[in-house]
Structure formats: C-alpha cells, structure tokens
Design brief:
Blueprint: H1 3-21, E1 25-39, E2 53-65, E3 70-82, E4 88-102, E5 107-123, E6 135-146, E7 151-159, E8 175-188
Antiparallel strand pairs: 1-2, 1-8, 2-3, 3-4, 4-5, 5-6, 6-7, 7-8
C-alpha cells in the first residue's frame, strides 16, 4: 500500500470515528505566511534551488472534536511559494491531517501527516520542471494558541520524507521543509 492510500485510509477512518461519536464539528478558514526551502546534502547544494521562499497559504479547515482534549483538523490549503532569490515558483495543494492536543484550555500541541500535491513548478524563465515530484508526504508538528472560541494562531514545521526530484540520485535528492505561522477562524456547524 503506497503513501497516498495509507493517508486516505487513515483520514477516512478518523472522520468515520468522529461521526460515530456524534461530537461537534466546525468549518473555517486558515491563512498562513512562512518560509519554505529544501534540505539537502551539501554535495548537492549547487545542483538545486536551495534559497528559502516566502510562502502564502489560504484554505479551509474542518475541526472535529474527538475528546475533551483532542481535535482532528483536516485542512485543504492552497500554497504559493516564490520570490526570494527568484529561482523558482511552486504552487501546491497541502492537505494536512492535524491532531490538536490541548494541554491547557488555550494552548495546544499539534502533529499529523501532510500530503502536498504540486500543480505548478517553474524557474525564472518559466520552464516547468518535469523532474519535480507531484506528491510530497511528511510529518507536520506545531504549537498553537486558542485566542477565543473561534480564533487560533499557530506555528508549524513540515519536513517532507519523499525526495523532491524524480531524476536525482537518492542520496543527493533534497527534501522539502517549511516553517509557517497560521491564523484560523472556525464557526460551529
């Protein structure tokens, strides 16, 4: 079973478990800003675009309460990474399945898998890089603060475990990584 099938199966299983419990659910929006780049061996540094890029993200969130202190928040986020260094532009759909663990009434830890589907990847000349993998999967971890009943602010770190380019030697291929700050607003469904 490949990564995508496992991700979809785990997501559907979690959603089914929430609906079976009859707990409350919230829809909302998430906007974020951060930096993204490639983590790679030093011997591959000249071969890839390693500059960090500014990342803007906007999307939807569906927050499901699993217990008094745990929420499952699957999201669909459209991300645009580009500008600094201007060597490349990347537009993708990020789909994290975030579990939030409330340690205090207002503070939460978050962790879960993320799948990223690349729609467009090009260099300064507009050349689309066919070697760029379309699917990237990896863990995301973070910390958040519940400002009020509907509003959150959180920081996240993502590290892709799949290699960034199809045609590179495995030990030279970089991995995607990003650090972002998000502002979220949800309302009761």
């Amino acid at each position: 079973m490949n990564y995508l099938n496992k991700f979809i199966f785990a997501s559907l299983l979690a959603v089914a478990a929430v609906f079976a419990q009859g707990r409350s659910a919230h829809f909302g929006v998430h906007v974020g800003l951060g930096m993204a780049g490639l983590n790679h061996p030093s011997s591959a540094e000249e071969a890839v675009d390693s500059d960090s890029k500014l990342v803007g993200t906007i999307g939807g969130i569906y927050s499901m309460q699993l217990s008094e202190s745990v929420n499952l928040d699957p999201e669909a986020l459209l991300s645009y990474a580009g500008m600094p260094g201007k060597k490349s532009t990347d537009i993708r759909l990020d789909i994290p399945g975030i579990f939030k663990f409330y340690t205090l009434d207002y503070l939460f830890l978050q962790a879960g898998p993320q799948m990223s589907l690349s729609f467009y990847y090009a260099d300064d000349d507009g050349n689309n890089h066919k070697a760029r993998k379309l699917l990237d999967i990896g863990p995301v971890v973070g910390l958040g603060y519940q400002i009020d009943a509907n509003t959150t602010i959180d920081v996240r770190y993502y590290y892709g475990i799949t290699k960034y380019f199809d045609d590179s030697i495995d030990y030279l291929s970089p991995n995607a990584q990003s650090f972002q700050v998000f502002l979220g607003y949800t309302y009761l469904f």
